[in-house]
Fold each of these.
Amino acid sequence: MLSGLLDRREFLRRLAVVAGCTAAAGVVLPFLERNSAWAQITAKDDARLISEYVKYAGETGDVRAYFARPKGDAKLAGVVVIHENRGLNAHIEDVTRRFALEGFLALAPDALSPLGGTPEDSEKAPALLDNWTRKKTRRISWLRPSI
């Protein structure tokens, strides 16, 4: 190597490493995209838990939620699991089960319940959530002081 330049052999070696990493990422990424169920850590039918979908009355109608708790009758603290912009999906349900395994009553409400719930295609959820929260924000905008 002269004056900070790579010789041909070193350049080809580094290029092969980068190309190999890129090829490996290309193979692995499709398995990780759009299927959060593959990232599941706690099985839906874990024998240590009771988990189910529940509904409760909300401001705009029934809210669907995923509820999980450890088996038994012990009094437990509760945790509310808030989903991100993809809605109440398999990953959020898994997080809810993991909290239950740690000894909590865990509830994950679907913020998209007023709009029919989280869509099958998680790519549609962010737009629905954004539109819904904007309408809700406008409804209470009269509370903001004028400047």
Amino acid sequence: MKTSDLVSRLDAFFRVDDYPSDDFAEIEVFSREAGIPLEEYATADFMRRHNGLMLGNCQDVEQVYTLVFPSDEVLAEVVRRAEGRPGFVFTHHHMDFETSDRGLIPMGEALLLRLREAGISLYSAHAPLDCHDTISTSRSLARAAGVRIDGVCAAYHGGQAGVIGSIDETPLDAFVEHLRSAPEVERVDTHAPGDRVARVAVVAGGAAFPPLMPDAIDRGCDTYLTGDFRVRHGGPWADEHRPQFDAFIETAPINLIGGSHYATEALVLRHEMLGWFNSLGLPADFVSQEDAWR
């Protein structure tokens, strides 16, 4: 398939032009501070809207690779698997994210050059994948958790990044044990003032934002399922806001469950998105990272 045709289909399906350009606009600041000439590698459309085709390095697509964070290790594995054939990366994030260490990390120029030389394009859908009304990070997590969706929540860049629904009332411990297998991660973090689960707000990824949690509480949820409800990473923004977030968490009258930023967002990329590309006749593989909580 022509790369241009695939990009047009993705843009239309995820309604990329409907989202504001401030979604991950900080990639320009991070790249500039790191001395990375992003504009020499990224497409003009990406520099304008910060979603969509970021790297247009091949005219045709033979193989698609889906992933959560474009780390050096994960993209090196993409290059290895491609074996010199034209490749197309579909990623949720267009910067790496060490959720328990350094935080956001832009792709270095050496990596950008390597992808160009390898003929591997890269397409990113951040808010468009979080907020889509059929294929989204939170919808996939809710399905895996057995939550029957009946509403949306978590306003985010003009869309709704979360969903709300119910399960047959169950002990919290049993619900958490189910999650250990559903998101395919052994470690599940909890802050649990209650011991039962029935009404659940699901916001995949890093949802450590106090304004999102009261919305779930006001709408009758007893549990808030996310990737990470704490700010663990470093950086000036995190250091400034962490005390506020931690104080809120300690008094929040709702069960908080975290399955890791990575694992909760990986589900849609492991499953629904592979099927989406397969429906176009394109083979697609998910490329995983080793540590879900890194």
